[in-house]
Amino acid sequence: MSMSEDKEDLLKKIYEEVVSSESSVYQSQLWKKLGIASKRGAKLVDELVKRGLISKRQAVYSGRRTYLLIAKDKGEEGLGMVKSIFCPKCPYDQVCNKDDPRYLISCKHLEEWVLEQYRKGKGRR
Q1: What is the pLDDT of residues 10-50, one digit of tens each?
Q2: Confidence (pTM)
Q3: 24-26 vs 54-61, strand pairing mode
Q4: Rounded CA gap, 91 and 63, in Å?
Q5: Which of 31, 95, 96, 123 has its CA 20 to 30 A from that of 87?
């Protein structure tokens, strides 16, 4: 396993722990659980913050200063991205109720477009 693969695996583990811990966890607890040195862990957290996947907030836990790591909700960003990429091209754009996010679940045109994009991407591998 290369150094970059090792780093990506650790980033994924940290992110999954933050998300699975009801969307937040104390950094000091996380290092103990994952067996990561705090200096290395702090660099990895900074990378996740830079990528926009988590945020961190100063906190005190068991009388010591640490950070509370918080998973960012990507739902609204994802909806905005889909709306800005797909909807302007859709012939039914004027009749959709885009103020109600449920339309994304029931839109057959969007579903077909997503499947088409997936198939295109799968062929590139």
Answers
A1: 888 998 888 887 768 999 899 999 999 999 999 999 998 88
A2: 0.55
A3: unpaired
A4: 59
A5: 123
> What is the CATH class of 3-71?
mainly alpha
Residue spans of beta strands (DSSP E) within 1-125: 24-26, 54-61, 64-71
Closest listed residue to residue 86, CA positions, set 60, 107, 65, 64: 107
Is residue 38 within 8 A of residue 32, CB to CB? The reply is no
Q: Where are the domains of the chain?
A: 3-71, 75-122
89-120 pLDDT per residue, tens? 677 767 776 566 566 667 777 778 778 877 87
What tokens were used for 54? Answer: 């988590």
Q: What is the residue type of 42?
A: A
